[in-house]
Amino acid sequence: MSGSEAAGAPGGEQRRDGQGGAAEQAADAAGRHDRIDHPPENREEASLLQEHREEALEHAGPAERVTDPSRYLLVADSVTAGYVPEVNILDGCTLTLGEGEVVGIIGPNGAGKSTLIKTIFGLLPVRGGTITLRGESIVRRSAHELVSSGVGYVPQTQNVFPSLTVEENLEMGVFLRPKIFQRRMSAVAELFPLLGERRKQKAGALSGGERQMVAMGRALMMEPSVLLLDEPTAGLSPIFQDEVFHRVREINATGVSVIMVEQNARRCLQVCDRGYVLDQGRNAYTGTGRELLDDPNVIELYLGTLAQTG
Question: Is 195 domain-assigned?
Answer without folding.
Answer: yes
